[in-house]
Amino acid sequence: MVDWTTIAIVLPTLVVAYVIFGIAGFGTALVAAPVLAHTMPIASVVPLLALLDFAAAALNGFKLSDKIGKWHFWLILIGFNLTFGPMHILGLQGMPRRMHTYIADYGFDLWNMVATIGAFLIAVAMLVFVANILVSWRAHRMNPVNPGPDPWDARSLEWMVQSPVPAHNFDTVPTVSHLDEFWHRKYQENADGKVVRVSTGAEAAQPGDGTGVHLPSPSYWPLVLAAGLPLIAYGLIFNLGIAIVGGVLVILAGFGLGYEPSDDPEAHGPHGPSGDGHDDGHAHAGDGHEDAPESESESDAGAGAAGGEAEAVGVSSTASASDEPGTEGKGSADG
Q: How far is Cα of residue 162 from the mean position of the Cα atoms in its chain?
């Protein structure tokens, strides 16, 4: 039985929208008339919004409201069709593309007004989406509910980790033997050939403890690198000076990443329970070198103490032996 959640409604509807507007594109290509609608890019944005709804549990540790999500879907669906549907008609009526204004007597007023209303509906739908995030976040703060590692009974491996996703992702790299590996770990066929559940998502998922996982130290250089790339792109189009600044940032970030130590010598705890920057029990290279002389001196001191004790024991033994009658002579005879 299909659970008609927001995601289950969005995906088939968008497939239908793609087919309709895709076929319309073939038809309008045969007509010598400008069609104003850019439906495919917009139809690509809506699945991204659905993906954010789907992945909210993994990203934030809480699911978005399904009721508000359906309001968002219907508003954006109606607004999408009201905005871009009339543009096909306007193109066939002769309105040129990329025109910000037109003469009132040309007869373009009605469908442009409909398209404007649709655009405002899309804006309202986006506000509803933002409101859904805020309302769901507030409800989660007031009554925290852990969605678990598999809130959607999913098939793919990204739901095999805890929610929200740990910083190290997988505890160990999963061994894949099926196309839908995670699903096959939860469902199998019985002797009668029927698919039955053999484990829950929580049982099949990894615990998220990250034992033996080593993470590098936090770094700001990737942000510097990311800031330089759009400056290069913008500068190559408008001003080479801006591109040079972006190139300097990229080179600087490259050197920074190259010379940055893989572990932070001052980090104690975030990288592992041992407090040495590792989860595998190994210490930093720098810490090992610093601790080595101290360890050696402690070993030497221990060896000296042990030697002193042995010497003292030998002396006391000799003294005891010399006190016994006949021991000295026997010792001399042996010598």
A: 12
* Residue 168 in tokens: 């190290």
pLDDT digits (tens, 9 = 90+) for 233-280: 999 999 999 999 999 999 999 999 888 876 655 555 544 444 444 444
Per residue in 276-316, pLDDT (tens digit) is: 444 444 444 444 444 444 444 444 444 444 444 444 444 44
Walk along the chain (335 residues) in steps of 10 and give the mean pLDDT of each run: 74 76 65 58 73 83 88 89 84 79 83 92 93 92 84 87 86 88 90 89 85 79 94 95 96 91 59 45 43 45 46 42 44 41
Distance, in Å, from the CA atom of 114 to the CA atom of 82, rounded to the nearest integer, reads: 6
Long-range Cβ contact pairs of 23-26 (< 8 A, separation 24 or more): 24/88
Q: DSSP letter string over 277-330? A: S-SSSPPPHHHHHHHHHHHHHHHHHHHHHHHHHHHHHHHHHHHHHHHSTTHHHH
Q: Please state, in angstroms and rounded to a whole number, the distance separating the CA atoms of residues 126 and 148.
A: 28
Cα 208 to Cα 217: distance, rounded to the nearest angstrom: 19
Nearest to 75 by CA among 5, 6, 3, 2: 6
Compute CA distances 256 → 23, 44, 223, 242, 289, whole Å. Answer: 51, 37, 11, 21, 24
